[in-house]
Amino acid sequence: MLPACPCTSCGEPLPVAPGATVLACESCGTALHGRPAARRLVDPDWTALPPKAKGRYADDTPELITVPDAMVPFRIERATARRLLRDRTRRHWFAPRAFRKVDEAESFRAAYLPHWVWGAWTRSRYRAARGDFTWASAGRAGAAHGSRVRGVRWRPAAGTLDRTFADVVVPATVRVDAGMLADLLRDWRLGGAVPFDPALLEGRWVQRYDLEPEVGLELAKARMAAAVEAEVRGLVGGDAQHVPVIDTAYSGLGYRLVLLPVYLASYPHRGRRRMVAVHGESGRVVAGRPWSGTRLGIAFALAAAVASVILYSVM
User: Which UniProt key words apply to this protein (predicted)?
Assistant: First the structure.
């Protein structure tokens, strides 16, 4: 067994088995999804990259892991984060009490979440077809007068596209909801990153990465490929495009491990623990909106009682 790490929802020790793809916290039931090392694909571009320094810095593992290149410091103080979270959650009267009091939860903590940040120059050669809509009269017996049929005229298209990708960010943790990570990512400003300094970790929980950098490269390339295809379709033009071949070569490939700041807290809801977050730079609160069945029942009962009184007075 590998060293135990804490569940991000409730903080209980979570033993990690080598090769496991799904881990379930025995305390709160949170499911964490990973990827076994034996199934990772070896990318030739990855094998050409020089190794990075290793060290011990994360709270959830004593082993040597890749040392971060940079980190974005917290700009929101802990007390301010609690206040922002309190202001957000206590506005929801129909939410369960645990959600409205989550700013007081013992699980509230400042954390640094690991992200792989990739950059590359790409040259993509593509072969495609451009489709332009054409319209013709129906010309069929019994067809309505003036009706038209749409067709597509296809023409071949080909070319080369050069692109620069500066900061393709791939979250390196699977212990925080993917939707929450994507929402948080909108506010982080990598331009404010500073060189990694262990002194800035004091009083913060630091999570190790769950996705190895070669897996991060695979995900980063998928995002680059999607951006390239979208631009190729724009270059092809027309009303429709068929793009069967895009051959992309990467150069100047490089990556950084960057720690990004966030405040995390969790609360129990319907037998599981749910997570909320406060952005460590902007202070924006990222949280769902749970509903309390008890509070909704009381509200409906009051509404029904008021409606009954009004009807009785009218009759």
Answer: Membrane, Transmembrane, Transmembrane helix
Q: How many CB atoms lie within 10 A of CB 77?
A: 12
Please check whether residue 281 is in contact with residue 72, taking contact to mean a CB–CB distance below 8 angstroms.
yes
Residue 124: per-residue pLDDT: 96
The radius of gyration of the chain's CA atoms, rounded to the nearest angstrom, is 26
Each residue's pLDDT tens digit, 188-199: 888 889 999 999
Question: What is the sign, positive or negative, of the torsion defined by CA atoms of 212, 209, 256, 223?
Answer: positive
CA 258 to chain centre: 15
**Residue count of the chain:** 315
Contact 285, 88 (CB under 8 A): yes
**What is the tens place of the pLDDT at every residue in 91-135?**
655 455 655 666 667 778 899 999 999 999 999 999 999 999 999
Q: Comparing 257 with 190, which gets the higher pLDDT?
A: 257
Domain count, the chain: 1
Q: Is residue 36 part of a domain?
A: no
**Dihedral pair phi/psi, residue 294, rounded to 5°:** -65, -45
Q: Which two tokens stand for residue 154?
A: 């296809």
In a domain, 38, yes or no: no
Angle CA 90–185–37, to nearest 5 = 115
Task: Characterize the bridge pairing of strands 205-206 and 109-137.
Answer: parallel
Nearest to 60 by CA among 1, 116, 6: 6
Residue 208 domain-assigned (yes or no): yes
User: Residue 203 belongs to what domain range?
Assistant: 52-128+158-314
| Residue 260 tokens, joined | 């990004």
